[in-house]
Write a structure and sequence with these properties.
Order of helices and strands: EHHHHEEEEEEEEE
Strand content: 15-25%
Largest sheet: 5 strands, antiparallel
Shape: globular
Low-confidence stretches: none
Number of helices: 4
Structural class: alpha+beta
Helix content: 25-40%
Length: about 220
């Protein structure tokens, strides 16, 4: 038996006061966290930047809504829903990059669950995504990818290459997505770009998909 660490999504059930305290704790824990430097976040650093914008805005909305005004309460709740979606994305990313050091999750400010796993249990290995596709979205520097999600996949990682797909060093991490059916890739460089993806599960990442290329406008 081994213990697998996962981030609890219990913040979805919090009331506004408890949620504000939790979101502020996560923000404080992640900024300057030596376990997750900017090099680990890569292009996902935008998640941290968005958190830094939304949490203070929610604190202000929470204070203003304390007078009971229904319009202000709706605005507060809308911000809360936006932060929850952001935290879900961050939780999936943090779990994926913490496979080799799961104890680091305890420094994120999230609540951590420990699940008992047995290697005796039959578990289908993750397979290479057979139907991974990427299409130009029609918007500048933007593409949309999709693939089916096999049983046991927690999230889905995409790497890109703008030079030579045969050179492993030219590949770099682009993003991790919780939903493989709608993976929106933004801020891409114009020109021919190569893509590959893999699923992440309880035992780590699976094999890479076949390489596909798209002309980015």
């Amino acid at each position: 038996m081994v213990m697998q660490r996962r981030i609890k999504r219990d913040y979805r059930r919090y009331g506004p006061k408890e949620f504000l305290s939790f979101a502020q704790k996560v923000q404080l824990s992640l900024f300057g966290n030596k376990n997750y430097p900017d090099s680990v976040w890569g292009t996902n650093i935008a998640l941290l930047q968005k958190l830094a914008e939304l949490v203070p805005a929610f604190a202000t909305a929470y204070r203003l809504a304390s007078n009971g005004d229904r319009l202000l309460i709706r605005e507060r709740d809308k911000l809360m829903e936006e932060i929850i979606a952001l935290l879900d994305e961050m939780a999936s990313f943090l779990e994926a990059v913490s496979m080799r050091n799961p104890d680091a999750l305890y420094t994120t400010g999230f609540n951590i669950a420990q699940e008992r796993r047995s290697f005796r249990r039959n578990r289908l290995p993750l397979i290479s995504p057979p139907d991974f596709i990427v299409v130009n979205s029609g918007e500048p520097r933007k593409a949309v990818a999709s693939a089916s999600s096999p049983p046991g996949a927690y999230n889905h990682e995409i790497h890109i290459n703008t030079k030579d797909p045969a050179v492993e060093a030219e590949w770099f991490h682009k993003s991790i997505f919780p939903d493989s059916k709608n993976m929106v890739l933004e801020n891409l460089d114009p020109g021919n770009t190569f893509f590959r993806m893999r699923h992440h599960g309880p035992d780590g990442p699976g094999p890479w998909s076949s390489i596909t290329s798209v002309l980015i406008s």
